[in-house]
Amino acid sequence: MFNAKNRSLRKRFLLIFTITISFIFVGGLSEGTSLILDSNEMCWILDRINIIDAWEITTGDPDIVVAVIDSGIDFSHSDLIDNQWINKDEKPDNGKDDDNNGYIDDRFGWDFYYDDNEPGPEGMELYHGHGTFVAGIIAASMNGYGVVGVSPNVKVMNLRALDKFLGHSSYNLSKAVNYAVDNGADVINFCIDGADAVAELNASIEYAYDNNVIMVGSVGGFGWTNRRIWPREFIEFPAAYDEVICVSATDYYDGYANYSNWGYGIDVSAPGGELADPMIYYPNSTWHPVGYSQLYGISHVPQVAGVVALMKSLNRSITLEQAKEFLTTTAVDIGDPGYDEYFGHGMINATAAVLEAAKIAETSFIFVSLVAPLLIGLIVFKRRQLKKYK
Question: Which domains does the chain have, with CATH numbers?
Answer without folding.
Answer: 1-30+358-390 (no CATH), 37-348 (3.40.50.200)
